[in-house]
Amino acid sequence: MNIPIKIFRFNPENGKSGNLVDYPVKLEPGMSVLDLLHQIHDEQDGTLAYRYSCRGAICGTCAIKINGIARLACKTQVSELLKENETITLEPLANMGVIKDLVVDRRPFWETIRATMPWLVRENDLPDERMNYEIKLNKFHLDQLNRAADCIKCGSCYSDCLKVEESPEFIGPAALIQIYKQMFDPIDIETEQRIKISAAKGGAFDCDKHANCVKVCPKDCRPLRAITFIQNRIKR
pTM of this prediction? Predict the structure, then answer.
């Protein structure tokens, strides 16, 4: 069975704007979108550019727009997509410049992460009892901290965030998930600095709560809940 695939193609060297190109692909049982891309690259067009690495929904490298929604190509099953649409459309992530085809410039995304101080600051002499998260955190924060730790920095939430599209200075859901991880970790001692970063322009209070980040997160990190916890912490 052949299925129609539309893939965004863009080559900065030819001076033309990007456009969707049709590819017929033979559907194989259990095929993921990444498998589909491999088949097209190997059998039809070796110039097709896309990113991938782990193939196990761990690295986040293969995130692209699939039928208009940011998803992991390695995790998304073609058979499930065909239940929604007869045609599959693959495009680069939004809110980041396109380098070639499905490859985007992730520097703006990584700059937001870097700006959050994405590391723990701890005391030199750390009493053992402070390591006990079950005692220091209630069940809601313990659950959210575990979910935040699952973030693979795939950029899906940043891509589909309507606030980032409207206001590029907004640091985005993934960066705020990163802030949450440090702000509510009982080991960290830089809470005030993290509150300052979160309360600044482009921080937590700029979130319009469209909740697209929740819909597209492949790891169910619940970024909107993390943002709400940060906002409540700042308001204290």
Answer: 0.93
